Amino acid sequence: MTALSEYQRLESPGLWREQPEAQRREVIVSFGDATLVISDDRSARALAHWSLPAVTRRNPGERPALYAPGTEPGEELELTDDTMINAIEKVHTIIESRRPHPGRLRGALLGGSALLVIALMVFWLPGALITHASSVAPSAKRIEIGRAALAELATVTGNACASPAGNKALEKLAGRLHLEAIFVLPEALKGARQLPGRIAVLGRNLIENNDSADVAVGHILAAEPSTPAEDPLLKVLRWAGLRASFRLLTTGNLPQDSLRGYGVDLLSVRPSRPAEDVLLARFEQAGVSATPYAYAVDPSGETVLGLIEADPFKGAPSPHPPLDDADWVALQAICDG
């Protein structure tokens, strides 16, 4: 569905919490085409995307209005802005009016057609069902699955390294690269991988064996998907299988233990490097030189000559480094504790 045109630029303040026991935080709520975008009121970083049709109100008729992204316990949004509340209610009224009513022939035909489509997808088009499940998953669910994949990966690599100063440095780097989070894994992983929900994981070698964050940033940029087929969630669902994907579509959750063994599979496949023009564009957008990454990949420079010669910063340090010296030193020590 598409949100009403008069609300395309609508924003309002709100109070949001990620979990029932979490402390509420001030956010900015934006009314999008088909979603509510919840962003940090200071950094403007997106914290969650809620599908408008799935948004439910927990206290109809009361103020302040309390909303959730579904019926399961979890995130909660408190709104006092009447315009935003009325916009959400109006969208839900339109959705309700478009639903077929029992007893009508048209409703029966549509229902039968829908069942036929589902049957065809389950029995004849499993690949299409898995692809569809990955394409419709909301941001919050992608992050949830990404963290589940991280937990499975940790059974092979060990738990992610952590320290107060190192964690702050990772948060800054994630913000710079528009990622949900970055984790450093102590063993087994060489290079970087991206998990669902824009969660990146780095091998310890990328931070301990380099003088700056440029090489680590380069590996993160190279791990980003270049095509829909490389979507990290799609890779997870292909591993989990048809039944798990169908369960995600129908219940919103993956079966327990459906990702068992995924960490080993993820580490066994080294991701291919994107085309040079694609990767150079990412370096330019991130404001980072491509040369340190290129020489880290191939010290001779022969196989990465295009990255070196077309480096948007010509090998010079970035005018705005991803991390300052103090943060980089803190990050290099994150696995020492």
Largest sheet: 7 strands, antiparallel
Distance between the termini: 50 Å
Overall pLDDT level: 85
Question: Could you tell me the strand content as a percent range?
Answer: 5-15%
Helical segment count: 14
> How many separate domains make up the residues?
2
Describe the structure.
This protein has 14 helices and ten strands. 45% of the residues lie in helices and 15% in strands. The chain is of the alpha+beta class and 337 residues long. The strands form two sheets. A seven-stranded antiparallel β-sheet has the order 4-3-2-1-7-6-5, covered by helices on one side. A three-stranded mixed β-sheet has the order 8-10-9. The protein has helices spanning 82-98, 105-123, 126-136, 139-157, 164-176, 205-208, 214-223, 232-240, 242-251, 262-268, 276-286, 291-297, 305-309, 325-332; strands spanning 11-17, 25-31, 35-40, 46-51, 56-57, 65-68, 76-79, 181-185, 192-195, 199-203. Helix 3 (126-136) packs across helix 8 (232-240), helix 5 crosses helix 14 (325-332) and helix 7 crosses helix 12 (291-297). The longest helix is centred in the middle third of the chain and has 19 residues, at 105-123. The model has no long low-confidence stretch (mean pLDDT 85). It has two domains: 5-98, PH-domain like; 135-332, no CATH class. It is globular, with a radius of gyration of 23 Å.
